[in-house]
Write a structure and sequence with these properties.
Hypothetical protein af1432; 3% strand
């Protein structure tokens, strides 16, 4: 599979970001998620994990004012597909939200998404989805501990909380203190 370089991915973020602040926020988050994923890497395809992590949130740049944030993954997959990127890479965008979104979630919660499963399937997708849980683009951005995220995801059901616990068991908890210090983001 032909993957874009870090410089090419950065240029895509720069091209599609609506402004400098959006570029900085999303690009920084994607770099952090990449660092976390690489910290937890075992036998996954490292170049694919790196490219997927750096691109997973590119769809945030395509959100229309007032559009539901949950649509950013689908928008990112469509964007990358339209650019001729491999489908395996574009899937990182639409399959990283929460610990996965099922068609039952879409129906039951009335989510503004086509009815489908948006679940990480490959080891690489799963690792990027998991790494993404440890950093938030909130204002101000912050790092999130496993226990804090378990509380957040628990609001969506015990099945989601159990899925996250299984991911913690599988990958362990990333070392966030040095990243939080380097990026100047609070750790909660």
């Amino acid at each position: 599979m032909d993957l874009p370089t870090d410089a090419e991915i950065r240029a895509l973020h720069d091209r599609f970001a609506p402004d400098t602040a959006a570029f900085e926020l999303v690009w920084t988050h994607c770099r952090i998620v990449c660092e976390i994923a690489e910290q937890l890497l075992t036998d996954e395809n490292q170049p694919l994990v790196r490219a997927g992590a750096l691109l997973h949130d590119i769809g945030v740049h395509r959100l229309a004012r007032g559009e539901a944030y949950i649509r950013h993954g689908l928008l990112g997959e469509e964007l990358l597909g339209g650019l001729g990127m491999p489908a395996a890479l574009a899937r990182f965008c639409s399959h990283h939200t929460g610990v996965g979104i099922t068609r039952d979630d879409v129906r039951g919660q009335g989510l503004p998404l086509p009815v489908a499963d948006y679940l990480a399937e490959s080891p690489e997708e799963t690792l990027v989805m998991y790494a993404d849980k440890f950093h938030s683009k909130t204002t101000p951005p912050r790092f999130v501990t496993a226990s804090s995220y378990a509380e957040i995801v628990g609001r969506f059901g015990e099945d989601k909380k159990a899925r996250f616990a299984a991911l913690v068991e599988r990958y362990g908890e990333p070392r966030l203190e040095a990243l939080a210090e380097r990026y100047g983001h609070e750790l909660r």
